[in-house]
Design goal:
This protein is mostly beta strands. The protein has helices at 4-12, 55-62, 102-106, and strands at 17-19, 26-27, 30-41, 67-68, 71-74, 78-89, 94-100, 114-116, 121-130, 136-139, 143-151. It has a domain at 4-45 and 58-151: Deoxyuridine triphosphatase (dUTPase) (Deoxyuridine 5'-Triphosphate Nucleotidohydrolase, Chain A). The strands form two sheets. Strands 1, 2, 3, 4, 6, 7, 8, 9 and 11 form a nine-stranded antiparallel sheet that branches. Strands 5-10 form a two-stranded antiparallel ribbon.
Length: 196
């Protein structure tokens, strides 16, 4: 895991890009990222998101339009996709893990840990939820995400592809299902009932 000194070195030598970068966001062993002004609420629905169908057909059923605002009130029992203010340019010899900052974890706001791959570029998109009986106000520019960088044992032979579905994503980007690449469903024949 990279220390603050190594993170600054990667940035100063142009290997790791974080724009805009605020010096106070570089922490002891990671970088804090901030909310942009883009918030996309998830709809409450009984529908099921089918990962084997094109996302363009489904996303309007599950996501409200993007709201651009100085703050967003995450209501109890609701979820929202957020985008970071910062654009990240990952080198081919680093990967990163994303977690919520402890302040938001203490407010019982939930978010799933995820990775940033070697060679990836873009704004980070993340989903937050408030499953508890109170909401949380999210302000544009507040630090909410902590990114831990780790060096690979060698540069990645196959870094995140320039044609990757989330490469160079700007602002809010919803899920994209690769229907052609997804394993097709296999129908399992029904087991006949035993006859007595």
């Amino acid at each position: 895991m990279l220390s603050d000194l190594m993170i600054r070195s990667y940035i100063e030598y142009g290997k790791l890009g974080i724009r805009p970068l605020s010096p106070e966001t570089i922490r002891e062993n990671g970088v804090d990222l901030r909310f942009s002004d883009a918030f996309q609420p998830l709809k409450k629905t009984d529908a099921i998101y089918d990962t084997h169908l094109p996302s363009a057909e489904q996303n309007p059923l599950f996501f409200d339009p993007v709201i651009h605002a100085d703050y967003y009130d995450l209501q109890p029992g609701c979820a929202v996709q957020v985008a970071t203010m910062e654009w990240i340019d990952m080198p081919v010899d680093l990967c990163a893990m994303i977690n919520l900052r402890s302040t938001y974890a203490r407010l019982m706001t939930l978010g799933s840990p995820t990775a940033i791959n070697a060679g990836w570029h873009g704004n980070v998109v993340y989903t937050l939820q408030s499953p508890y009986p109170y909401g949380v106000r999210l302000y544009k520019g507040d630090r909410f995400m902590h990114v831990l960088f780790d060096s690979l044992t060698s540069p990645a032979e196959k870094p995140y592809d320039k044609d990757g579905k989330y490469q160079d994503q700007q602002g809010m980007v919803g899920p994209k299902m690769d229907v052609e690449k997804t394993t097709r469903r296999i129908r399992v024949p029904a087991i006949p009932e035993k006859t007595l």
